[in-house]
Design brief:
The protein is mainly alpha-helical and 194 residues long. The chain is built from six helices and four strands.
């Protein structure tokens, strides 16, 4: 209808106007706080938001809460493999892609495995779990989004680190008993007469 076309044109023009303000304009943010630490924290949040907005303008957005990566596991299900090592590799990647959604749900006090199971049962790629409200929602309509560039870069960086570990002959790990101990600044001088 003419009304629908008019509304679509208006929305498109409004979006282009907003985009031009984001890409070519100058903004001044005045950040305050009770202490320098608080001001620094707020500045960091503004910087993060600005960088996320730039990334979203550059490459677009995907549903947030880890569901974009979660639904990518479905694409790997029917992938043809030639040997057991490839099958294991795909399984490892699928588990890694489920980790963000699982972690977000678990950190909010929900059973992440149950939530992942429910999400993978359906086909709507925007469907996700709003951990703050404890309900299933259309993530994009709810405003729970991630810049595609951020998700893509995180996945590529994780793959790069994983590749580094597979080609490394030895890795040094911290003993789990020593995690809570602060590191010693002075080396142990036992037996040196001090």
């Amino acid at each position: 209808t003419a009304m629908g076309k008019s509304a679509a044109t208006f929305d498109r023009e409004k979006a282009q106007e907003r985009l031009s303000k984001l890409t070519g304009g100058v903004a001044v943010f005045k950040v305050g706080g009770a202490s320098e630490v608080e001001v620094g924290e707020r500045k960091d949040r503004v910087t993060d938001a600005l960088n996320a907005t730039r990334a979203a303008v550059e490459e677009g957005i995907v549903p947030g809460g880890g569901v974009a990566l979660l639904y990518a596991t479905k694409a790997l299900e029917n992938l043809k493999t030639e040997n057991e090592d490839q099958r294991r590799g795909i399984h490892i990647i699928q588990n890694a892609l489920k980790a963000p959604t699982l972690t977000i749900a678990s950190n909010a006090g929900f059973d992440g495995s149950t939530i992942i199971g429910k999400l993978l049962e359906q086909d709507d790629v925007n469907f996700g779990f709003d951990a703050a409200k404890g309900e299933y929602v259309d993530m994009v309509k709810a405003g729970i989004i991630d810049p595609l560039k951020v998700v893509r870069t995180a996945l590529a960086d994780a793959a790069s680190v994983s590749l580094l570990f597979t080609t490394t002959e030895a890795t040094v790990l911290v003993n789990s008993d020593d995690k809570n101990k602060p590191p010693s600044r002075v080396p142990n001088m036992d037996g040196l007469g001090y």
